[in-house]
Amino acid sequence: MATMNISLTGEMKDAVDEAVTTRGYVSSSEYIRDLIRNDLELERFRTLIREGLESPVAGVADEAYFEALKKRLIADQVE
After folding, report:
1. How far apart are the first and last CA of the chain?
2. How far is CA 1 from CA 25, 29, 33, 55, in A?
3. Is 57 helix (H, G, I), strand (E, B) or coil?
4. How many CA atoms lie within 13 A of 22 on its CB side?
5. C-beta separation of 31 from 16 below 8 A
6. What's the CA angle centered on 74, arms 70 and 79, to 5 degrees?
7. Each residue of 8-19: pLDDT tens digit?
8. Burial, 22: exposed, middle or buried (Cβ in 10 Å; 0-12, 13-18, 19+)?
9. Distance CA 16, CA 19 (A)
10. pLDDT category, 2, cuts 50, 70, 90?
């Protein structure tokens, strides 16, 4: 595992220490790693949203569409 040193304001350090104490983190490093993982996940989600917005409309997502999708998913689980 690589090491990185970061500088924080006093207020930020206090917030990290508080999170470690109250949220069950073992260390400040664990907390920071969790923040980075969450940020990466959020960025992946934003990318998917952008891709979806840029994709062509494939059809109407009405009740019939979701019923057919549900049947397909159930059939896939049975196989």
Report:
1. 42
2. 18, 12, 12, 39
3. coil
4. 6
5. yes
6. 150
7. 999 999 999 999
8. exposed
9. 5
10. very high
**How far is CA 19 from each of CA 7, 23, 34, rounded to the nearest angstrom?**
17, 5, 11
Extract the tokens encoding 53.
Answer: 């917005």
Structure tokens at 46: 């934003």
pLDDT digits (tens, 9 = 90+) for 25-68: 999 999 999 999 999 999 999 999 999 999 998 888 899 999 99
Predicted TM-score (pTM) of the model is 0.68
What does the block give as tokens for 26?
């073992």
Q: Can you read off the two tokens belonging to residue 16? A: 């990290």
